[in-house]
Model the fold of this input.
Amino acid sequence: MGACIGAVVGLVAITPAAGYVDYGQSILIGVVGSAVSFMGVNWKNRTTLDDTLDVFPCHGLGGIVGMILTGVFAAKVGLVNGTATVFGYHMLGLAIVIAYTFAVSWALLKLTDKLFGLRVKVADEELGLDLSQHEESIYHVDEEFEKTYRKELVS
Done:
């Protein structure tokens, strides 16, 4: 699974540069993007951050690496070719996108937390979200337990 995710992250990283870099640079961008995302996932796993699907370490960091390296390697206008203008615009654009995304995400999460809450109850999480949130289970291991649980929901 790691190899598949690494391939997807490599594609995420090369997307901003598609059409502006040659083959060797595209492979380098994909490898660097995947390595940075891998380090981000490992760091996140040592924290209490709740990003179950590792969306930010994979798509966020992969996209950031791709955007930065596009400014470095872009044909005729990148840092490698001695022009810093495009790289500067990429860095400015990156700062704007990060600030906007952080502010809007923070506001929406605060609003959602006030209206509905961001977490389920600990008991619901321990029971399993299939049963506690959707009242169903694909695993019919203990039908007596499910019947008892459904009775508790009704009363």
